[in-house]
């Protein structure tokens, strides 16, 4: 059912006058005496709808990942765990990234990320970085375990100038005991470091990893009768939710009484379908919402002049571009509106 909102003329006249007085009091150069003395000539309820479409999509990609492993014992445990889950040894049967079972988020239309290992895709290989030995030569000391002394720069002596003398004195470096070398601080004198790839485990476990991303694609637009209100003004206020549908594949709102909303629903569904298809994602859920934004057009007269102002949104914001009684130039009140 569609709920259409209307207001009685007496209550609306009081509400409109109070809203206009509050609007004039907040704008620079607009007096509130006009809002108190003006004559309300007409009150018209206009229909404005805000249509929004949300498409919850899932995107996947497969990458090769690796992690340190202690050897074949780890692979046997991993294979046993896969067999208990019913997925061991069938990694070669997975021909598409969409065949891997990935958990869905707890709540729909909330963005999230996840990673799932392809069952049966793990294998053990010798670490290519250290050739399976677990360590590699230290690049700072080139495997020697010693490096040049930082105090004497490898000479074994320090240069110093004697006071009240112009000659330079060569004094022995006590930091390296005149050897010119010190123990490498990076490898602690061993000449080798633990392999950064396998962390000293000597083997790597390589497997296929599915990266899953859940995104929410949303679009909204205002449909209203011909008024002087700007569309962006209506998009900044809230309305009454009168229709909400949530389906696996959204269908156009063919039964909605407003033809423009029907056409917009059909057009946005097609745009989202093309966008999702181009990105290689998969639609999980689509949700359509229609909000009724209350818009009241008020015609008034004051000192022989006639004009209109509008109340819009649940907040009943006021917009009066042609306020008649102001002591500042009209352009300033228009900008302040």
Looking at the overall shape, the CATH architecture of the domain at 135-194 is Ribbon
Measured distance between first and last alpha carbons: 36 Å
Percent of residues in helices comes to 10-25%
From the spread of the alpha carbons, the general shape counts as elongated
The helix-strand sequence is HHEHEEEEEEEEEHEHEEEH
Gyration radius from CA atoms, angstroms: 38 Å
Secondary structure tally: strands = 14
* Biggest sheet record: 8 strands, antiparallel
Low-confidence stretches: 1-10, 85-90, 327-337
What's the tally of helices? Answer: 6
| Average pLDDT metric | 80
How big a fraction of the residues is strand? Answer: 35-45%
Judged by helices, strands and strand pairing, the structural class is alpha+beta
CATH class call of the domain at 135-194: Mainly Beta
CATH topology (level 3) name of the domain at 135-194 = Chaperone, DNAj Protein, Chain A
Structural overview:
With 337 residues, the chain is an alpha+beta fold. The chain has a domain at 135-194: Chaperone, DNAj Protein, Chain A, CATH 2.10.230. The protein has helices spanning 9-26, 33-37, 72-85, 231-235, 259-279, 330-336, and strands spanning 39-69, 112-117, 123-126, 135-137, 146-148, 157-161, 168-172, 181-183, 192-194, 203-224, 240-247, 282-302, 305-312, 317-319. β13 (305-312) and β14 (317-319) form a beta hairpin. The two termini are 36 Å apart. The model is unreliable at 1-10, 85-90 and 327-337 (pLDDT under 50).
């Amino acid at each position: 059912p569609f709920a259409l909102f209307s207001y009685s003329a007496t209550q609306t006249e009081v509400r409109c006058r109070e809203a206009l007085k509050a609007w004039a009091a907040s704008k620079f150069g607009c007096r509130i005496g006009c809002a108190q003395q003006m004559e309300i000539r007409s009150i018209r309820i206009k229909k404005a709808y805000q249509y929004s479409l949300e498409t919850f999509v899932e995107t996947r990609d497969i990458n090769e990942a690796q992690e340190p492993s202690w050897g074949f014992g780890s692979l046997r445990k991993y294979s046993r765990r896969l067999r208990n889950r019913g997925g061991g040894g069938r990694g070669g049967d997975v021909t598409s990234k969409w065949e891997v079972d990935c958990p869905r988020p707890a709540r729909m239309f909330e963005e999230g990320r996840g990673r799932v290992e392809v069952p049966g895709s793990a294998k053990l290989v010798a670490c290519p970085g250290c050739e399976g030995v677990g360590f590699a030569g230290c690049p700072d000391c080139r495997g020697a375990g010693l490096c040049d002394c930082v105090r004497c720069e490898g000479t074994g002596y320090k240069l110093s100038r004697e006071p009240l003398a112009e000659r330079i004195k060569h004094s022995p470096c006590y930091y390296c005991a005149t050897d010119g070398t010190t123990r490498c601080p990076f490898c602690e004198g061993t000449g080798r470091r633990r392999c950064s790839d396998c962390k000293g485990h000597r083997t790597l476990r390589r497997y296929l990893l599915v990266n899953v991303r859940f995104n929410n694609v949303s679009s909204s637009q205002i449909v209203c009768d011909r008024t002087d209100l700007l569309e962006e003004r209506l998009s900044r206020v809230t309305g009454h939710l009168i229709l909400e549908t949530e389906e696996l594949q959204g269908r156009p709102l063919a039964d909605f009484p407003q033809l423009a909303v029907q056409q917009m629903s059909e057009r946005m569904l097609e745009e989202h379908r093309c966008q999702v298809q181009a990105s290689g994602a998969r639609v999980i859920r689509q949700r359509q919402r229609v909000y009724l934004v209350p818009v009241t057009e008020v015609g008034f007269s004051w000192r022989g002049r006639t004009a209109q102002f509008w109340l819009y949104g649940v907040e009943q914001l006021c917009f009066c571009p042609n306020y008649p009684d102001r002591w500042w130039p009209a352009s300033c009140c228009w900008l302040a509106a």
